[in-house]
Amino acid sequence: MPKSPTLLRMVKNFAKDLAKFTKAGAPVVDRFEYEDRVSTCLSCEHLKNNKRCGLCGCVVEVKAAWATAECPDGRWIQNPTQNGRKNYTNKPGE
After folding, report:
1. Structure confidence by residue, pLDDT tens digits, 61-76
2. Of 1, 64, 71, 82, which has the most beta carbons under 10 Å away?
């Protein structure tokens, strides 16, 4: 099993994901995709303390809501597309 990321690596990962998220207009996934992502994380062997990803260090309940975020292990199904564009929403749980 890979070693958990250092605090510095977690900060860098978060800053990169946050920049991508805000640049896209802070889009969030719908409730069903969010629940699927969290469920995937909860059954993953990399999950630490039932809340942090052991690969990137994110708090999964936060990162799972961001439509621009990706699982570092490629376990999340890609966001649905509509007419070739990401189908993002800016309202949580919509």
Report:
1. 999 999 999 999 999 9
2. 64
- Count other Cβ atoms within 10 Å, centred on residue 90: 11
Place of tokens 């699982």: 71
Q: Identify the residue whose tokens are 């978060």.
A: 14
Over residues 44-61, the pLDDT tens digits come to 999 998 899 999 999 999
Q: Is the pTM of this model over 0.85?
A: no
Backbone phi, then psi, for 83, in 5-degree steps? 55, 40
In our burial notation (b when 16+ CB lie closer than 10 A, e otherwise), range 56-79 reads bbbebeebbbbbbbebbbeebeeb
Beta strand extents in 1-94 (DSSP E only): 47-48, 52-53, 81-82, 85-86
